[in-house]
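SAMPLE LOG
Freezer: B-3
Tube label: C17
Construct: single chain, 350 aa
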Amino acid sequence: MMNNQDVLENYIDMKKKGASKSNFRSTINIFFKFHKKSLSEIQKVDIMNFYDLLNNDEHYVKDTKKMIFSNVKQFLLRVLVQLESEILSDKSLKLEERLSNQMRITSILNYIYNGKNFSFKQGNHNINSDSNRDVILTNDEVVDIVQYFKMIDNNSLRNNKYLMIRLLAETGMRRGELISIDLKTRVNSHTENLEDTLRKRYVRTTGKTSELRGDKTYYISEELAQDLLTYLKFRKEIEFNKAKKPNEKFEPFFLSSWRIRCSTNYLSMHLRGAIKFNNVVDEEGVFKRVGTHTFRKTINTLRAKKGCPAGLMERLLNHKLTVNQKYYNKMADEELVKEFDIYNPFNFLF
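STRUCTURE (predicted):
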């Protein structure tokens, strides 16, 4: 059998395309750091121990653990089924050896796919000494990152990564709120169309703390609103894969290549590429650990530098209701759009 790395590359070449290759490779290499023996020697206990190790690792959050283990299961299914076939057809092995190996492989596959329900504990990625908790971007760094996404989308508004990263940069919305933008939104007793809200220069979404305010409202620049309207025309031509997500109440605005709602990690790998491409480093020359939440902290910092009142900053970021926001919560959307323009640090830069 080929060495582990060759097996992985062969699998990736056959099964993976484009950007997903790098992400898949990195997750399987996490498993290889644990399992240093040949895949032909793998035992059920190896998978059990890897699951326990991953589940108890505080450096990964729950969603990352699930993604890593899901990729490992997918990879092992293909590899072990192929290995089983090779063993059974290997006439150099005694019948007892072939049957023994077949039982070993069957035991592993049953454990992975028919055994326990693999649930994961929440980790805490902020325990790392190189956490991105305090990372803030400069105005120019944000512009460079947004332009990188425009480049990988080939300057086409038919692609969505550029528009998604620009929404994060301009509004500071959370990534969960970003992927929760729908073509229609239920507000109180009526339904709003995304096209109508974009023409008024805001988007409605749901997310963290939304139960305290109802749907979240984020305001956007005139230029971004027009670009999103252009993309919306193209988006309406794409059929949402309802069969895969039958419980979706409304169709999502941004779709993955599977024509379903994008995952929270949809932009992560490209964001790392943008950091390296633009050489976004700290004072010591180390690449900044930029995540999607970094844009939320950054826009708050840049607005503060422009003199934005604390209550308005909280309101524009849809923070939990506080006394500071009392005045701004009474403002109509049209008035808040004007306030957004006054303290927008990226006017005419994108």
